[in-house]
Each structure stands twice: as C-alpha cells, then as structure tokens.
UniProtKB/TrEMBL annotation:
<dbReference type="InterPro" id="IPR050177">
    <property type="entry name" value="Lipid_A_modif_metabolic_enz"/>
</dbReference>
<feature type="domain" description="NAD-dependent epimerase/dehydratase">
    <location>
        <begin position="9"/>
        <end position="208"/>
    </location>
</feature>
<dbReference type="InterPro" id="IPR001509">
    <property type="entry name" value="Epimerase_deHydtase"/>
</dbReference>
<protein>
    <submittedName>
        <fullName>Nucleoside-diphosphate-sugar epimerase</fullName>
    </submittedName>
</protein>
<dbReference type="Pfam" id="PF01370">
    <property type="entry name" value="Epimerase"/>
</dbReference>
<dbReference type="InterPro" id="IPR036291">
    <property type="entry name" value="NAD(P)-bd_dom_sf"/>
</dbReference>
Length: 298
C-alpha cells in the first residue's frame, strides 16, 4: 500500500482526510512548523500539505504569522519534496489567494488580487511552487477550495445554524445572493483521485460543489435538517442598510462590513477539476450541507 505524509493532520481537513484515505493509503501524519533553515525529511509516496494559519475573522493576528505559516513553511516543504523520491505534492491553498470578492464566477484563469494577509500568503506560496522546475515523474497540484464544511467544522456555518435552531428569524431575506460551498466529502474524493491516478495533469484547480446556494436557501436547508420551518423576514433592503450604517457609528452587531459579508455573492467554477478527473463529484451541494448540519446535532 502506498504511503502519504499529511501535514495539518490534527485540523478539520486533516482529520477527515485521514479517515477517508485510510482504506487505500498508509497515512503518516506529521506535525511541522516553520523554523529558519530547518531541514524536513519527506519519505512517502505522496505529500499532502494541509497545515497553515487559517483566515482570522476577528482580524487580531499578526501578518507575519501568515507569512511564516502559509508561505515560508510551504516553501520549505516543497523544496524538500523536490529533493525527495515522493511522487505527488498537493498543496491545499484557498480561493482567497485570488480574490476576497468575486464579480461573476471565479475560475483558475482569474487574476489574483488578494487583500488580506491570509490571501496574500497563500498566493505567495502558490507563486513559489509555480516558479519551480518540476522533475519528470512528479505531480504537483495546487487546490483552491472555497468554503469547506463537514463534520467537525466550527465556523460561521455553525453559528448560523445555532441561530436557526433557536428559532430566531433570518432578517436579511430581501437580499439576493449566491455562494459556492465545498463539502468535505467532495474535497476528500478529489484528493483521492489525484493520488490514485498518475495521468492527471499538474496545475491549479478550484474546488467547489456543483450547485451554488443562496443564503435564503441555506436557511431553509437548516430548517429542514431540524424538521422545522425556518423563519425568513424580507425587510426592505434600504431599511437594513440604514441600520448597518448606524452600526458603523454606534458599534452595533450589524454594520456595513458585516452586512456585506452576510449578503455578498461568491461563485467558484469547478469545471476544470471535473474534466481532469473525468468524473462527477459524488455529493450534491444540498446533500453535503444536510450531512454537515446533521453532524451539528450530534
């Protein structure tokens, strides 16, 4: 059985990958942090680099932490890969390496203009990998997942679910938006395909479920998972924007920035990865969301 070294094995993505891949690969979790001039030994058939510093929604992290964890560490690992006998290197990057806001649909050809330290550090790592000469016989994949969800995920999706479960109404029903999500099952499926099939071309691949979902649809799916009808208020957009404007000055829970985050559209195309693996993704967007929401009730 082939071996696979996995960084970030204790994280949300890493834990799910270990479980998913265990039947087909010997998983070798390893803990690694950036240290100046450190030497990293890689001795597995495949390397999955999922470690890094996640996006800080509270904006309290030092930008240097992103630089070291997401760029410098990736650089050290990739250099080690180039000098090893390992065949495959998979770097779990992010769509945020390209854009924090999207007009239309984000594709692999979209020009990167990240604004946050998180996005900038991921983009730097991507650029470094792409600028190296890849020896014959090695495959290198840069994966750009959109918002990943699944069992063990404790992000904004969980907070929204708690609001719905307590019977609070969703007050932003008048806003029309669409977002792409990525179920952890589809992420694991794609990575398994990349590891199992040497003929897939190296390169950058966006990862997203097939269907986009509006926030109103998401609230309704949450209600379905709870066997209750979700309450959606369609308050006029002009009223909501006035409240958010007041929130900018009065430090209310709803301000203009938070409103934009809650109501913006962010669509990610996945046609390139589906064409590369020649298969459909196994889990629909709705099915994946229901699986995640059910896990919140456990």
């Amino acid at each position: 059985m082939e071996t696979c070294q996995l960084s970030g094995a204790s994280g949300f993505v890493g834990q799910n990958l270990q479980t998913y891949l265990a039947k087909d690969f010997v998983i070798l979790p390893f803990s690694v942090r950036y240290k100046i001039n450190q030497t990293i030994d890689l001795n597995a058939d495949h390397i999955i680099h999922a470690a890094g510093k996640a996006h800080d929604l509270k904006k309290i992290s030092n930008p240097a932490e992103y630089y070291e964890a997401n760029y410098e560490l990736t650089k050290q690992l990739f250099d080690a890969f180039l000098g090893s006998n390992s065949k495959t290197f998979i770097f779990v990057s992010s769509v945020k390496a390209v854009a924090d806001k999207v007009n239309g649909i984000l594709t692999e050809e979209s020009i990167g203009h990240p604004k946050t330290p998180y996005g900038k550090s991921k983009k730097m790592a991507e650029d470094y990998i792409q600028n190296q000469i890849i020896p014959e016989g090695k495959q290198v994949f840069i994966l750009r997942p959109c918002m990943i969800h699944g069992q063990g995920n404790k992000g904004n999706l969980n907070l929204l679910f708690k609001m719905v479960s307590k019977g609070f109404p969703w007050p932003l029903g008048s806003f029309e938006n669409k977002r792409s999500f990525l179920s952890i099952e589809n992420l694991c499926y794609v990575i398994k395909e990349l590891l199992s099939r040497p003929g897939i071309p190296s390169g950058i691949y966006n990862l997203a479920d097939d269907d986009d979902v509006s926030t109103n649809e998401l609230i309704q799916i949450m209600g379905s998972s709870l066997n209750k009808k979700a309450v959606i208020w369609k308050i006029p957009v002009s009223y909501i924007r006035k409240i958010a404007w007041l929130g900018d000055f009065l430090l209310l829970p709803l301000n203009s920035e938070r409103l934009d985050k809650l109501t913006e559209s962010y669509l990610v195309g996945n046609s390139k990865i589906k064409q590369a693996i020649g298969k459909e993704l196994p889990v629909s967007a709705r099915e994946g969301l229901l699986n995640t929401l059910k896990s919140f009730n456990k």
